[in-house]
Amino acid sequence: MVRRGVRTNATTYAHLIRAFRDDVDTCRAFFAEALKDRRHPRVRQAYNALLRVLVGRQDLQAAEDLYADMNARGIPADVDGLDIIMRALAVTGRTLLATQLWERRKALADANRKRAALS
Question: Which top-rank group of organisms is this from (predicted)?
Answer without folding.
Answer: Eukaryota
